[in-house]
Amino acid sequence: MMRSVINQFLGLRLSGNCSVLVTQVRDKGHLSRPRLRNPQWFLRKEITKYNDLMTAENKQFVNEVGTNNFGVPAVIKDSLVKTEAPTANEAVWTPNLRRCGVIARKIGQYPLWLKNGERIRTTLLQIADNHVIKYIPPEEYLPAQVPKVANLHKRGCILVGSETTNPALLTKEYAGIFRNSGVLPKKNLARFIVSPEAQLAPGTPLTVNHFRIGDFVDVRGKTVDHGFQGVVKRHGFKGMPASHGVTKTHRRAGNIGGGGEKGRVWPGTKMPGHMGNRWRIIKGLRVWRINTKYNVMWVQGSSVAGPTGGLVYIYDTILPFRKNKEAPPFPTFYGEPQQDGDDLWYEQLHNFKSESITYENE
């Protein structure tokens, strides 16, 4: 009797004189905890830094040279990073085609006003130094997590990099990704699923002119990481009273109803845990304003996921009623941007550079 109880406790099943260990296998989505480590296929990016025998003057000189040569071209116009845009292909845009996206940084929020006086809230996103690194055709592309779809090899993949960095600070494996792209290594990489007709040649620059004013985009970002938090901050619980018999349970969850016949914690119960650091997608944001000089775009709302300075991914919206009705720059924008004071305003916005009050002679 005692042996059967122990074997049941340890997860053992007896079959004759043999004991077989039974392991419980759960699905990947059982615990929705944030992934704090890189996957196994992720290449090591930064090299180990050693304390070389360099004087303070030499270190300062090396830092100045790296800053001048590998700065962000969106801010530093006289950068040495210069690439020639390949010619556009002859594909024709259709509403069912999917274009490439861009990598941007969330740089803040700013209010705008419509011509009728209505105030709207917008988020500023800067597309800094984006280039196409590689195109993977549909027959060769294999995602890390294979989705359950009927036709997996229907679309290809474009690898996009942003923000040029010093190659001396990167590993040989990571720098090898950019060997045949014609551009210097980038700090950030992202993959975008595209249609075969929307493929881009390596080295193609992606600017804010990839989108038009008035279009709708989807923005994907990672929420602010708050770490392990209690139920008051994580779920907005009220907490216990401050006095009248309450002892050391002011900000605790209290009874979760785990007794009785069920005798367990129900899945989805609001309890303390890790808060933030989750990928979130905000869909259907209108592009209100574009600055072609610094590659900045104003998008609708102030709920874009991530902190100020965080990375976000922007691409055409997938909402059926907000998709592009007219052909956007396909597969991307080629040529020189329009010179209209480096700012492009949506027709319903009030342009601060124009007159708001006019006087007429009687």
UniProtKB/TrEMBL annotation:
Biological process (GO), any one: translation
This protein's name: Large ribosomal subunit protein uL3m
Entry GO terms, CC: mitochondrial large ribosomal subunit
Any one GO molecular-function label of the UniProt entry: structural constituent of ribosome
Gene3D superfamilies with a match to the protein in the record: Translation factors
InterPro entries: Ribosomal_uL3, Ribosomal_uL3_bac/org-type, Transl_B-barrel_sf
Membrane spanning residue stretches: none
Keywords for the protein's UniProt record, in alphabetical order: Ribonucleoprotein, Ribosomal protein
Family classification: Belongs to the universal ribosomal protein uL3 family.
Region named Disordered: 239-270
Originating organism: Drosophila mauritiana (Fruit fly)
